[in-house]
Design a protein that fits this description.
The chain is of the alpha/beta class and 158 residues long. The chain has one domain. The chain has six helices and three strands. A three-stranded parallel sheet has the order 1-2-3, covered by helices on one side. Helix 6 links the parallel strand 2 and strand 3. The longest helix is centred in the middle third of the chain and has 13 residues.
Length: 158
């Protein structure tokens, strides 16, 4: 995501915190970030050692699943995707990227704010496609998704 799209002051609570400064100085350590229960959070890590982890369909399916288990309304939405076709939810019947994007956007509306973190985007299969899909995911109107995308500085991802 482009830095120019960032609102002034975004992330200052984190970047100026004593905890982050201390964590950055340590040779090892941990940093704990917390939020309120039911805020709607999901994460995904693209691992170069696992070829399919950088697949856009797998990324979105994981995020949809994480939001679904946090809300009964979202779980019901997921079930409705399969009931019309009498499909069972298996790895072979995962909806396509467009369906997953739309489902994720609709599920996010069941939360005050949905926060999604995707790490190691540069390890994904098709970085340009991934970038376009993520931009579509957070496109207004009716979007309350906050996306943190982490990667090395690669032009295709921006």
């Amino acid at each position: 995501m482009s830095v120019s799209l960032r609102s002034p002051g975004t992330g200052l609570w984190l970047t100026s915190s004593d905890e982050l400064q201390k964590w950055q100085q340590e040779s090892n350590g941990k940093l704990w970030l917390s939020g309120i229960p039911g805020a709607g959070g999901a994460f995904y890590y693209c691992d170069y050692k696992k070829a399919k982890s950088g697949n856009m369909q797998n990324i979105l399916a994981s995020l949809v699943g994480q939001l679904a288990i946090q809300s009964s309304a979202c779980t019901e939405m997921l079930h409705k995707v399969y009931k019309p076709n009498n499909r069972m939810l298996t790895a072979r019947t995962v909806p396509n990227v467009e369906e997953l994007t739309e489902l994720l956007r609709k599920m996010a509306l069941h939360y005050d704010e949905a926060m999604i973190v995707i790490d190691a985007l540069d390890e994904s299969e098709d970085q340009e496609y991934l970038s376009r899909t993520l931009h579509e995911l957070v496109k207004p109107p009716n979007c309350n998704i906050k996306l943190a995308a982490l990667s090395r500085d690669e032009q295709d991802i921006r």
